[in-house]
Structures are given as structure tokens and as C-alpha cells.
Amino acid sequence: MLTQTRHSPPLTRQPRRHNHHLLGWLCALLICTGPLLAAQPFSVQGAKTTLTDGVYRLDALLTFALPKKVLEALDNGIPLTFALDIDVRQPRRYLWDEHIASLEQRTTIQYFALTEQYLLRNLNSGHEASYSTLASVLRALGDIRSLPIIDAKLLDPDEYYMVSIRSYLDFESLPVPLRMRAYISQNWWLTSGWYSWDLGMEQ
Hints:
Layout: H1 19-37, E1 42-52, E2 55-64, H2 68-75, E3 80-90, E4 98-112, E5 117-122, E6 128-131, H3 134-142, E7 143-151, E8 162-169, H4 176-183, E9 195-198
Antiparallel strand pairs: 1-2, 2-7, 3-4, 3-8, 4-5, 5-6, 8-9
């Protein structure tokens, strides 16, 4: 799994009479960045690819935590669209990685107050399923099983390949008035970040 490293600019030594200003600045910085350093609301818990009948298939487990503002929109019947990006590439030492294939899975969740049911709809396949609780529909959303991503014939068995996935909330699909508010609110900027591993070429 790829890890992210935070780089902070070096602090220059200040005269003693300015230390209280530096301390105040650091406190303000910690307060402002506190939410950004917290656990991500979307997370890839694990993922793997297996070769079945000549096709590489994805199994992954993702978790989702929705902020209050997002839950309010869902409770008011606004459908939420979740995207899963899948990228296959060939790393190269001296050049940019070679892009091999990409796939995007799009799924919506919509709540119907009359029936008190959540509808999960895969926009790629058209498959639909209903759930009685938010927890159950989010579990189903994050449970990816045997999703075909690439035919083995398109790959060289002697080469090395990497797979990366990420999930995010696509607020571009929101109604225009809500979309404009989402642009300026961190409540809607929800993403897992990229999670990468070796595709594996074992037959």
C-alpha cells in the first residue's frame, strides 16, 4: 500500500522576544489543520486481484463515513453518487509509468422516506438492491467482489504491473444549488486516496 508523507517547511530560529508570536501561529495552524489530519472518512481496508478464466478480477473492502451535511441531503431524498476508479499501469524506472487500462464504477444511493428503504444502484450494470438501514447499504457499497478489470491477454506475463484504486463522492452529480455549496464545503470533498498493490502475474 502506498503511504503518504507529510513535508513541513523548516522553521527558522527567531529571537526570544518573538517566541510568543510563533507559538500562537503554531496553535492556530494545528486548529485549522486538525480535521485534515484526522482519519479519512473513506478508506480502502484491503484489495487484491485474482486471475480467473483469463481475466483479472478485483476483490476489495472499503468503508464509508458520511458527514452530517451529506447525511441530511441523503435523508431528503437526494441521490449520492460514489465513484470507484481502478487504474492498471506498468512502472518504469526512468520514464513515466505506462498507463495500461482504467475503469470507473459508479454507484448511487438514494433514500425513500415512504418505504424507509435505501436503494443501491450500479450505474454501470444497472443492478439494483434495497436495504433497510444506512449501515447495511454502505457495507454493500464497499464490498467489491470478483469485479473484472482486465483481460490477461492484454498483458505481458514477463512484465510487472501495478493496480491502484480509490473511491470518492462525486458531488458533480448533485442538483445545481447543492453542488455550488458542496464546492466550498470540506464536508463534500470525500475520498479514500489511492491504494496500490502488485497485480501479480502468477498463472
